[in-house]
Design brief:
mainly alpha, 12 helices, 55% helix
Length: 218
């Protein structure tokens, strides 16, 4: 469900434009019966089966919150607000006028990482994501992209390390939540810091080469 909310928010980042968020579900998701036992405010994403087994089916692994979302006949904006615990007036209702007056959220242009370090850092970040997901006891329920999707990893690998000195830097760059930052953000920062330390000599040589080229041109 959190991934659905994240992807829906990325349909259009500019408040002056219109976007379409399309949710495609398999027919069984519309037919499963959701009872009181499937409601747990402390864990809305708990799997439909409650307890998972090694060979649990896709239906049993699917979170109850996203099943309710798929079956909802009311405002989907309200579904997200309930899932996120948003009690504000704007969180409970939404109209087309709201979309037209939302402020622009264009991401500011950021400095870029040295080209020769882009792919190696991306590989390190992907390895972190794979290892973290593999060691998670709920890996069968949580898609690997819940940790950090491919686009976000690409952005991180291309961003100049001077702009990635704190967890808050990463949260703002990827437009993530503080809760995500306490877990994934902290881990990503450690990966990037370790990578920067290991490649300090490469960075210094690159900067020196750029200064030399500039001096020759001048």
């Amino acid at each position: 469900m959190s991934e659905a909310a994240q992807r829906g928010g990325r349909a259009v980042r500019d408040g002056q434009l219109w976007g379409l968020y399309l949710l495609m579900v398999e027919t069984w998701a519309l037919d499963v019966e959701l009872m009181e036992e499937h409601t747990d405010d402390s864990d809305p994403d708990k799997p439909y089966a409650g307890i998972l087994k090694k060979n649990s089916s896709k239906k049993d692994r699917t979170g109850c919150a996203v099943l309710r979302y798929a079956q909802s006949t009311t405002c989907l904006w309200e579904c997200f607000a309930k899932y996120l615990g948003d009690q504000t007036p704007t969180g409970q209702t939404h109209t087309s006028e709201d979309a037209q007056t939302m402020p622009s959220t264009k991401r500011k242009r950021t400095k870029l990482q040295d080209k020769e370090l882009h792919k190696p850092l991306l590989a390190k970040l992907k390895k972190w994501r794979t290892d973290t997901h593999f060691n998670d006891p709920l890996q069968s329920v949580w898609p690997i992209t819940w940790l950090c999707d491919d686009n976000s990893l690409e952005i991180l690998s291309k961003t100049n390390p001077d702009n990635l000195r704190t967890v808050d830097n990463i949260i703002k760059l990827l437009e993530e939540t503080e809760e995500w930052g306490k877990d994934c953000g902290q881990q990503i920062l450690k990966v990037i810091a370790r990578f920067d330390k290991e490649n300090l000599v490469t960075v210094l040589h690159s900067h020196l080469a750029k200064k030399t080229r500039t001096s020759v041109t001048a």
